[in-house]
User: Fold this.
Amino acid sequence: MGEKHNGPVTRDGIRIHSEADFSGMRAAGRLAAEILDRIGEHVFVGQSTAEIDRIVEEMVNAAGATSATIGYKGYEHASCISINHVVCHGIPSDKKLKDGDILNIDVTVIVDGWFGDTSRMFVAGKLARKAERLIEVTHEALFRGIEAVKPGNTFGDIGFAIQSFVEAQRMSVVRDFCGHGLGAVFHAPPNVLHYGREGTGPVLEEGMFFTIEPMVNLGRPETKILADDWTAVTRDKSLSAQFEHSIGVTATGYEIFTLSPAGRFHPTYG
Ligand code: MF3
Ligand code: CO
Ligand code: CO
Assistant:
């Protein structure tokens, strides 16, 4: 394990990884994405999020992997499940899904010491038009951010690509949570902001690993944390959506470690 931490670190404290490290991230990212591919059929009206989480945990264990979230800062579940106006870090519970609920399922696994972190949107029952538009804009925002990933660009370029697209759709980008470096650890420098100005922030270099995970609201961007100390919700109760990928910077651009092997990004769109 030790040698996985021994690569160089930039001035900004961002680790530069080797080709062997890319292989490790591919395996971890693939498992996390496969779990999301397979969880879709367990999302339906009347299902509880605790049951979805139980199935996620079972899939992680069956693969011989470890959940990164169980025991993380006292969190006790294999997934975060964030419904409707919940922005992120929703705690699985016995509450049952209702027709038209939209939910983000966020799974992080550890495979051979490497962390794969990804989330997608799902729907129970019939998807309402404005929720569908929010989900499409959020997914497109993630990919606009990913397209800005190449050596020489900056983290501000990623944030700018996301923010400028989202705000042109008259939706808002959450500022209170961000993406993060990862690799042989869950959360590492830098903070990957989903808003910003072109040319600002650390410069991207080949071998950096991080997540991009924009949260987009139909209303205002402000959030608050509920009394459980985890659940983040929109202050104005507006709907919120999120997608997350774990990414590596390559010589010419990027590699997405958590792309769906089945080619899915959420069940409705296949
Ligand atoms: N997977 C989340 C992220 O994208 C972190 C969840 S931490 C937990 O960074 F403890 F809430 F599970
Ligand atoms: Co993450
Ligand atoms: Co995540």
User: Anything to note?
Assistant: Residues 19-39 form the longest helix (21 residues).
